Amino acid sequence: MPAHVQVAMAGSVREGLLALAVGAGMQVMAAMMEESVTCQCQCSPAGGHQAPSLQQSRPGKGD
């Protein structure tokens, strides 16, 4: 096989592998983002407290 044909094939194989890797990465990213959205819906709201009866105080400032 001529050298210029081998080089052309190597370039297209490299591009194909890059496209495959990018596609797989995008699918993983989409799955992670979907999981993040699902988790936020099941957890308490941002800034919310699980036990409202607990109060925060600084050491030495207790009332």
UniProtKB/TrEMBL annotation:
Residue ranges, annotated region (Disordered): 44-63
Biased composition (Polar residues): 52-63
Protein name as catalogued: Uncharacterized protein
